[in-house]
Specification:
Order of helices and strands: HHEEHEEEHHHHH
Largest sheet: 5 strands, antiparallel
Number of strands: 5
Strand content: 15-25%
Shape: elongated
CATH architecture of the largest domain: 2-Layer Sandwich
CATH topology of the largest domain: Beta-Lactamase
Structural class: alpha+beta
Length: 225
Amino acid sequence: MNLKQVTFSQQDRELLDNYFRIADTIADLIGPHCEVVIHSFESFEQSVVKIVNGHHTGRAIGSPITDLGLKMWSNYEKTGEVSPKSYFTNSSDGSLLKSTTCILAGADNKAIGMLCINMNLSFPFPEIVKTLMPDVSVATSVVNENFSTNASDVINQALTSAIDDIEKDDSVNTKSRNKAVTKRLYDNGVFELKETTTLVSERLGITRQAVYKFLREFKAEFATN
């Protein structure tokens, strides 16, 4: 099969652009020893359209696709295989990389690009691990997040956290406590979960109508701002 450039539409470009934030997110999660690249199949000669931490391979936007990338694209065209596979390779300076590559498909499963992640393992392992651990010098480096298997747990954990925060806030008096707790949950999007109104009314000892009244007031305040 002869390789040829992929004919792109504006929709293809927009779909590929939406993956840029994913590249930033992955690089931010794994840290500075991780290079994340998005290739566009619109031009194999200048396929790199997004790259984070490109110093690991010396590449920049406008760099060409790799020979392995072309092989994976060709294989996708033949088999439709998208699933990423990890592998080890070496950069031009000899650094050991653990990599994975996934074909990005657009409309009608047309291959429009690739997402590539390259972890540089040539650095001392303690240095790599340090970038994965919280910075103890930053008080807010650890964020509370509730991982649950059902929505009720998520709501109850968020409710407990909101109650604790409001009870520590000296600016909130007893009369305003229930409204302040409800506002905290509303601001955090917890009322998008269907059971929230019922669980909040039960936990705070107020009627559902009172909760609905609070919500109407919050929405009205938002609409006037």
